[in-house]
Structures are given as C-alpha cells and as structure tokens.
C-alpha cells in the first residue's frame, strides 16, 4: 500500500527543495516527489497542511549502552525515544564497557535493532581492542559487518605511533576515523573548562588547548596516512579555526558539534549542576560563538545529540564524582530548531546538518527526499509550543539540563522505511 | 520525578533562609556583608568572654554536631569540635575515609544514615569541590551544613576568622591593601578570602605567585596579580601567606622549595616593602623556610596564633547562628 503525503512544506537540503507539494511513498521508499498522478485507489492519503516534511534525522553519535551497560539504557528504550524525536538513524558509539571489537557485536546490535524496527542503528566500531589504544581490531571484518566508521572514543592511544598505524589500517579498509580530539596529558584530572568559572569554583579543568592540540596532531596524521577523518564534538574556537584552515588547504575532513554545546556555557556550572557535566566540557561564550560561526560557514558539517543516558545514581553525587553526558535524543531537534528561530541558520541550512551532511559522513543513502531514497521521513508541526518535562521523556536516561525549557515545533509523525514508527498506536498514546 | 534532575539553587540562595538568616555556611561568595559583620560581632563576644563563662553559655545544648571528614585534618576538626563543645553540643567525629566510603556506601546514603541519628549540624570536609553544597541540597530541612573545606573551592570559616583577625587589628577594610602570597591555584582558603575581602569592600586585593600557581582568569575575581614578591608587597597593610604543598614540585609547578623560598618566601627584608604596621597571617600549618621565614612567623608582625584563637570564636558564632540560637544577649 502506498502513502500520499499532501500539502506539506517539503524541505530537502540535498536538492535544496523547499516547497509545498506532495510526496508518495511505497514499499519502503520514496516513489515520487511533486504533484503526483492520480493516487492508487488504496493509497493512504495524509493531508499535511501546515506541516513540514523533511528527511528523518541522522544522529552521528548516540551512546546506546547495549550490550554492556543495559542498566543505563537499552536499544529498545532508546530507539523508541529516537523515533518519537524524528531521528531515524542512530550511530552507536563504542565505549570501554560496550566494546565493539569484532563483527559478532556489530551483527548482534543490527539484529536487535532490526527486530525492534524503531530506528536504523548504524555502528561505529573500535579502532583498538577494548579501546586500549594499542592492538588493532579486526577492522576489515568490522567493515564487512557494516560499521560506518571506527573510533577510539575518548580513550587515548598509547602514543602517536599507534594512532598513526590505526589510521593507516582504517584507511586500508576505507573506514572513516571518528576522532574525539583530546590531548590527555593536558586534560589530566580536569573535567570542566579551564576558565573563569573553574577558577572561581576551584574545579580541576581542561584547557581548550587540550582539544586544539589534538586537532592539529590529527590533521598532520591525516596528511601522512590518507585516512578519512571526522572530528567529533568540537568545543573550542581554536579547533574550528584549524579545521576551517585545513578545509581551505584542501584536506578532506568533516566535523560535528553536540547540540547542547550551542546553548550552554561554563556559566551553567556555577551551581555545581551535575546535569551540565559533559565531555568535552561546556566552554566559554566566545567558544560558543565560534561554534555557531563554524556552523554558518560550513566548517562544522553536522549537529548530533551526543546522547548519553544515565541511571539516576550516575548523577547523584558531588559534581566531580558524576559521570559526564546528557540524555539528548529528545532535545536534538527542538534545540536545533531554535537556531532557525534565533536566525543563526535557515530551515534548509539547519536540516542539512541533521540529515544530508551526516548521511554523507556515514555514506548512507538516507537523509534526503528523492525518488528511490528510503522513506525515512518526519512530519513536523512548526507551531506547537511546549515545555520539556523529565517525566515525559521516553529515553531511559532522564539526565537533561533542559527540563522546563520552552520549545516551538514538535514531531507529528515519523516514518522508517515507509512505516509509521511514531506515534506508536499501542504504546505512545498518552 | 526526582528533584535532582533540575538545575539546583545557587549557593547564595541556598545558604540563607527566605528571611535572609544563615542556614548553611558553604562559601563566602555572595554572603552579604551584613551577615559577615554579624558573624564577626558574635565572634567578638565569644573572644572577650573568659573561657569558663563560655562554658556556661550552652547555646547548643541538646544539639548534635557531626564532623564528616572525608579528608584528613586534625586542626580544623579540633577547632570545630572545641567550638561545638563550648556551646554545649554533643559532638561525633566521623573519619569517613576509614568507614563507609571504603565499603562502597554512597555519600548520600552516609548522609541519610547520619540524619537518622538526629544530627543537627554537619561539618563537612571533602576533597571534591561542591560536596558541601551537594549535602546541603539533599539533607533534611532541619540540618545545617558547614563547609570545612571542599576541594579547591571554599573554606569559609577559615576566611571569616581571617576577616575577623584583620578587623580586630585594622578596623575598616576600605583603606586596606591586602596581599595573598603563594599557591592560589590549589587554595580554597585564598578563594574564600578573596570573596570575603571583596564583599567587605577592601581597597585593593593582590595576589602574588608565579604563573604556574595562578588560576586562569583570576583577575575576573577582582584581584591584581603580581609575579614578583617585592613589587606586590609595596605598601600593603596585610600579608597573607598560603601553605605550599610539597607535591607541587612533582607536577612541574615549581622547580624546588629553595627557589620558591628565595623568590616568594616571606623574609624580614621583604617586610620592609610593606606598610610599617602591616600584619602577617597564615592559615597554618606553616612550612618554615618554604613559604615563611621563622623570624617572620614568630616575629612581632605575625598574628598567626591569634588566628587560631579566633578560629574557635568564629566557628562558635557560625554554629550559634545557623541553629538560630540567640547568642548575642545570652552569652
């Protein structure tokens, strides 16, 4: 059976389309865009007047915790939250307790996600065994099992020699290297931005240079190894500057930023709020402005959630003892849309960073509204005013600093391969 | 819904009751000048009262003070203990390092258990900044929390006893130049002193140390930074020396104790740069020959032992105030 979505404002960053028209989907794919011929007699017709239709979001970084940290979250809980938030593809990040060393783990995650059917889960594999920074993983097998890239996460390489070799081996298998830039020697015991607030509160701090130094080193290794590099979670003005220069010099690099980094700064930690304990740390207002400029001039390609759901106890301690991270699937689109409302980006420019650019980075065929593309789509009501509440969150992690923030615009319906995955007729009716 | 999944209240609002009285003492940042003066006024009464008479003013009779020390400190603990005892309170000392923490009990569980034993005041020392705030936020409404040092963040009673000592010797703060010398980076005492001095309207606050011991952006706290001792000491009325921990040499923050003493240690000749009536302070324990010369530490300008005496009076004042006891008239 086909579905005809009529009268929606269709926003497709890949083609630059922004017009009120119709989209027909069938057999999991987009069948036509533009005024259709007479619809099939059994077609399900949706009148989307006043709504926006855009590709489902592709989130480059979600720490989905399963398998290994299932007490924090599960693929079931988090893909359901993703569907409700207009996210149709999630990139699963490895961490020491959720190690993705070989193809069996990749297959397991794919199998669970497929049987749940709420969102595509793509896997970023380990670059080194157990992320210990020395011995390589079976990257060839990881690639064949469908990994969209490899990373060592926030764990350090033993030294630059090991990083170089891991990058060369990843390049052999055409795996994109997801680099979390941090010079651990400079970060030491720090966990907040080295600046005015850390000095005032006496908190161990990480200088912005710990990130920019790592970006500079990685750029040099990129030239040496020919690896394709994606920089994850930029936070510092200096990093944006270096990557902008590298782009101008013709290097093939991409970069992302977490949505919360665009709205919070070190000042949000003045009351020791553990919900604002994130990695990389919230930095200065000047850094935040540089990140916004980086988005505007396309130095930063993508905005991701950097979703890190936690159990209550992980945040229930003095700041320094808490685990970093925000449960962020449900605020990715609402926060990002604020950039449009604030005039930082236009709607197409913003959606580009949530759909087409991340699709390009993980070489996905989704992320666009074109004939034969997967029918991963979001119907969005741009006018609804609402407030985020922790109780209403679907993610197992309720750790968000954005509770009670007002937002404009809400996901009305999410399609994954042409099937409606939100609202769920059985479970989401509230 | 869990209350902690909301940004917590600011320290300023948390340490005061809605009527503006002292509820907890967590930091000197944002503590109103009127309250600082009230604490000092009450301390003054305790100081002038002979010790025997103090014991007859049991303002905290029936109250239980629990010293929660997650980090070792004999001196600070003893002064809190003495202050509580002089006010007639029951005192329990808990060295948490050797008890529950090592059994894997969470901090919150420890606090809940002690609350259930009818604690009225928690005196908290912890290696991590913000711990006193954390305990204050989640403890029962009748409990008051006194911060006895949290990481590098704050040590408010130490700063208040220093303010009290300065007021005793110098009177007004507005005309004063105060220099803080040494390891500001790792010092909760210095941070609390800077906030208190600045709230009290001190004419000029200076900080003197090499760049490795000065935190980023310290100027934003309203201080002038000097890297040369004699330049920074010129015409000051108060010199506050900070304790230098020996492990600072290992982190490449300083080359050696001897070079530090040569360049930043307070020696008799450095005192020639200050105002002739300048006083010398130190929160203790002092490292003779590292940050301060013996001749200076034991000399006529030194008020280091007065600070210790005042420490008990200030802690008595704070305890009396948070328990809402009418210390003024009764004492």
Name the CATH superfamily assignment of the largest domain in chain A.
Metal-dependent hydrolases
CATH class of the largest domain in chain A: Alpha Beta
Number of domain units of chain B: 2
Distance between the termini of chain B: 46 Å
Strand content of chain A: 15-25%
Put simply, the count of helices of chain A is 12
Number of strands of chain B: 9
CATH class of the largest domain in chain B: Alpha Beta
Unreliable segments of chain A (pLDDT under 50, ≥5 consecutive)?
none
* Parts with pLDDT < 50 across at least 5 consecutive residues of chain B: 1-5, 326-331
The outline of chain A comes out as: globular
**Alpha-beta content class of chain B:** alpha/beta
The Rg value of chain A, from CA coordinates, equals 21 Å
**Assembly annotation:** heterodimer
Q: Which pair of protein chains has the largest interface, and what are the residue counts?
A: A-B, 36 and 34 residues
Quick recap:
The complex is a heterodimer of chains A (about 425) and B (about 325). Chain A is α/β, with parallel strands linked by helices. Chain A has twelve helices and 18 strands.
Question: Would you mind describing this structure in some detail?
Answer:
The complex is a heterodimer of chains A (430) and B (331). In chain A, helix 8 (237-248) runs parallel beside helix 9. Chain A is globular. Chain A has 430 residues and is α/β, with parallel strands linked by helices. Chain A is built from twelve helices and 18 strands. In chain A, strands 1, 2, 3, 4, 5, 16, 17 and 18 form an eight-stranded mixed β-sheet that branches. With 331 residues, chain B is an alpha/beta fold. Chain B contains 14 helices and nine strands. In chain B, helix 7 (156-170) packs across helix 8 (188-199). The longest helix of chain B has 19 residues, at 304-322. Chain B is globular and about 55 Å long. Chains A and B meet through helix 6 of A and helix 6 of B.
């Amino acid at each position: 059976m086909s579905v005809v979505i009529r009268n929606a404002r269709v926003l497709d960053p890949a083609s630059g389309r922004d017009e009120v028209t119709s989209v027909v989907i069938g057999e999991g794919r987009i069948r036509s865009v533009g005024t259709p011929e007479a619809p099939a007699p059994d077609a399900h017709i949706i009148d989307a007047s006043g709504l926006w239709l855009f590709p489902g979001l592709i989130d480059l970084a979600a720490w989905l915790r399963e398998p290994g940290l299932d007490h924090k979250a599960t693929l079931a809980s988090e893909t359901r939250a993703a569907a409700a938030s207009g996210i149709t593809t999630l990139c699963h990040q490895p961490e020491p307790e959720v190690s993705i060393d070989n193809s069996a783990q990749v297959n397991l995650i794919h199998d669970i996600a497929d049987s749940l059917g709420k969102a595509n889960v793509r896997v970023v594999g380990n670059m080194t065994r157990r992320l210990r920074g020395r011995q390589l993983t079976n990257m060839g097998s990881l690639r064949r099992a469908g990994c969209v890239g490899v990373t060592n996460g926030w764990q350090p390489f033993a030294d630059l020699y090991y990083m170089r070799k891991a990058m060369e081996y990843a390049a052999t298998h055409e795996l994109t290297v997801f680099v979390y830039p941090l010079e651990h020697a400079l970060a030491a015991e720090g966990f907040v931005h080295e600046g005015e607030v850390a000095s005032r509160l006496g908190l161990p701090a990480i200088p912005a240079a710990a990130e920019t130094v790592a970006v500079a080193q990685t750029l040099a290794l990129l030239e040496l190894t020919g690896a394709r590099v994606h920089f994850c979670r930029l936070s510092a003005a200096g990093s944006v500057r270096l990557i902008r220069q590298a782009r101008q010099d013709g290097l093939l690099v991409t970069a992302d930023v977490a949505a919360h980094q665009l709205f919070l700064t070190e000042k949000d930690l003045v009351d020791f709020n553990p919900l604002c304990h994130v990695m990389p740390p919230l930095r200065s207002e000047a850094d935040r402005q540089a990140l916004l400029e980086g988005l505007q001039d396309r130095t930063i390609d993508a905005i991701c959630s950097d979703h890190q759901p936690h159990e209550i106890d992980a945040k229930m301690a003095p700041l320094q003892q808490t685990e970093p991270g925000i449960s962020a699937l449900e605020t990715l689109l609402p926060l990002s849309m604020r950039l449009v409302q604030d005039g930082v980006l236009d709607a197409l420019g913003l959606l580009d960073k949530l759909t087409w650019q991340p699709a390009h980075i993980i070489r996905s065929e989704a992320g666009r509204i074109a004939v034969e593309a997967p029918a991963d789509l979001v119907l969005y009501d741009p006018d609804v005013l609402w407030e985020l509440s922790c109780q209403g969150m679907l993610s197992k992690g309720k750790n968000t600093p954005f509770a009670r923030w007002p937002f404009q615009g809400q996901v009305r319906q999410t399609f994954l391969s042409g099937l409606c995955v939100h609202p769920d007729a059985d479970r989401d009716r509230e | 819904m869990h209350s902690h999944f909301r940004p917590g209240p600011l320290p300023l609002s948390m340490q005061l009751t809605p009527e503006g009285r002292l509820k907890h003492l967590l930091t000197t940042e944002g503590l109103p000048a009127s309250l600082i003066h009230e604490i000092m006024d009450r301390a003054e009464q305790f100081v002038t009262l002979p010790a025997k008479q103090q014991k007859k003013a049991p303002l905290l009779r029936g109250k239980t003070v629990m010293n929660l020390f997650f980090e070792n400190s004999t001196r600070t603990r003893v002064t809190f203990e003495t202050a509580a005892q002089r006010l007639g309170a029951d005192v329990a000392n808990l060295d948490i390092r050797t008890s529950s923490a090592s059994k894997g009990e969470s901090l919150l569980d420890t606090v809940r258990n002690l609350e259930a034993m009818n604690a009225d005041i928690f005196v908290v020392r912890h290696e991590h900044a913000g711990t006193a705030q954390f305990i204050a936020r989640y403890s029962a409404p009748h409990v008051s929390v006194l911060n006895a040092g949290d990481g590098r963040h704050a040590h408010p009673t130490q700063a208040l006893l220093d303010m009290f000592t300065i007021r005793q010797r110098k009177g007004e703060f507005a005309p004063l130049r105060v220099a803080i010398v040494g390891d500001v980076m790792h010092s909760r005492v210095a941070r609390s002193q800077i906030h208190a001095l600045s709230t009290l309207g001190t004419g000029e606050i200076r900080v003197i140390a090499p760049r490795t011991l000065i935190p980023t952006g310290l100027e934003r706290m309203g201080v002038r930074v000097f890297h040369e001792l004699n330049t920074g000491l010129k015409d000051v009325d108060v010199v506050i020396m900070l304790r230098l921990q020996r492990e600072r040499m290992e982190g490449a923050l300083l080359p050696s104790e001897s070079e530090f003493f040569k360049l930043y240690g307070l020696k008799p000749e450095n005192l020639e740069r200050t105002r002739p009536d300048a006083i010398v302070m130190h929160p203790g324990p002092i490292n003779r020959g590292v940050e301060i010369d013996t001749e200076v530490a034991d000399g006529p300008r030194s008020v280091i032992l007065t600070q210790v005496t005042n420490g008990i009076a200030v802690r008595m004042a704070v305890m009396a105030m948070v328990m809402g006891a009418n210390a003024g008239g009764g004492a």
